[in-house]
Design brief:
The chain is α+β, with helices and mostly antiparallel strands and about 220 residues long. The chain has helices at about 10-15, 20-30, 60-75, 80-95, 95-105, 125-130; strands at about 35-40, 45-50, 110, 135-140, 145-160, 165-170, 175-180, 185-190, 210. It is about 30% helix and about 25% strand.
Length: about 220
């Protein structure tokens, strides 16, 4: 099946550049030997030989959210605008169902003050918060006391120095913030966790310090 022709205007709109830039780049590719040719007519445009096209890149909801979180953390660092542009292109090409899933997942991330630079914790935590499963944690608190407990994960929160898992702790029967670098082990139990939101936990953090991550950058 021959790829559908794309006009310079369509390509310019998709990649957020001018039609002159598209025409210049197409000419450069043709001169380099890339088999791009023009199709005349009302529905015409540029076409590339199908043999040289690549399959679409399918980003998962978690991968799209990771880009959004990275953008929120680095702004206004160099190339932040390029990262924002890349995220918008990923969102534009993503299936609607994945975009909806990403929007739901990004709502479970909060940045407090200046976001931390630590890791996202054991993979089981990220998987459980995405799937809304109960986690079993081995946790060492600030007094160096180790406890094992089951928690219902709700959100990630990043501060200037650290990332935290905000969850409903069944051991303490209340909302708790678990510093990720103090979690010694995490197991996804597979048990569905009750529907809870960040607002439901009534976390004692001033609203002025908390900001949400925007999926579209």
């Amino acid at each position: 099946m021959t790829p559908r022709p794309r006009s310079a205007r369509q390509l310019a709109g998709r990649y957020e550049v001018s039609t002159r830039t598209i025409e210049r780049d197409v000419l450069a590719l043709q001169e380099a030997g890339v088999p791009i040719y023009a199709v005349a007519g009302r529905c015409g445009g540029y076409v590339i030989d199908k043999a040289l096209t690549l399959p679409p890149l399918n980003f998962t909801a978690a991968e799209m959210v990771a880009m959004a979180v990275s953008l929120a953390r680095v702004e206004p660092a160099p190339f932040a605008s390029s990262l924002r542009s890349a995220l918008r292109k990923v969102l534009a090409a993503a299936p609607a169902a994945q975009t909806v899933e990403a929007a739901q997942l990004v709502d479970r991330v909060r940045l407090i003050g200046t976001s931390g630079q630590g890791s996202g914790g054991p993979p089981a935590i990220q998987e459980a918060i995405t799937a809304r499963h109960v986690l079993r944690l081995d946790y060492r608190d600030r007094h160096d006391v180790m406890t094992s407990r089951e928690v219902e994960p709700v959100a990630f929160a990043g501060t200037r120095a650290h990332w935290y898992l905000i969850a409903w702790c069944r051991l303490r029967d209340g909302a708790r913030a678990f510093r990720l670098d103090r979690i010694r082990a995490a197991v996804d139990t597979g048990e569905p966790a009750p529907q809870r939101s960040y607002a439901d936990l009534d976390v004692d953090i001033p609203d002025a310090l908390v900001r949400r991550v925007e999926l579209a950058g």
